Amino acid sequence: xxxxxxxxxxxxxxxxxxxxxxxxxxxxxxxxxxxxxxxxxxxxxxxxxxxxxxxxxxxxxxxxxxxxxxxxxxxxxxxxxxxxxxxxxxxxxxxxxxxxxxxxxxxxxxxxxxxxxxxxxxxxxxxxxxxxxxxxxxxxxxxxxxxxxxxxxxxxxxxxxxxxxxxxxxxxxxxxxxxxxxxxxxxxxxxxxxxxxxxxxxxxxxxxxxxxxxxxxxxxxxxxxx
Length: 226
Hints:
Order of helices and strands: HHHHEEEEEEEEE
CATH class of the largest domain: Mainly Beta
CATH architecture of the largest domain: Beta Barrel
Number of helices: 4
Strand order of the largest sheet: 1-2-3-4-6-7-8-9
Helix content: 10-25%
Distance between the termini: 43 Å
Structural class: alpha+beta
């Protein structure tokens, strides 16, 4: 197979040489074929019979390797499931994140928290916060990707105070940074700040309603599934 390819290459080179105006003129004047010892023929033959060293292969191999190498960038079109943990106040629960495109996505956190109140004894909170998010950009390198984002949505807080309960719904704004790592391309770690007005639990005329922080800092972990 290799021999036939090289013979074809010689034939093509010979045809190109014969098509050259200069060489055609020489042939018309000499009315004889090009001598085998001609420098043009010797150069064409030497190039046709040079062993295939595969020097062009590394470029294609490098492109394929880059495609196969895991990158630290965002997981577009994959479902991210994980958890949220409060850093400013105690909170823990499940979390969801999904990037529709390179820039737009959505997420939702469901956090459980509580405290001990001297008047009401145990006070329990449930925070559900669905938001739409927009990525500002992707920074870093192939090893570590830094993806800041911002967005907004709702903060829904339900509190159980003794035998009573109350629900508060307010608009919320979020801002955070998602970190990706080449060593674990499906795993993303985020730090996030969530802002909303403090819930108003005065509907039942509590003498001193409990406070749920308007600004909350959380840590998040998501694993993305295709």
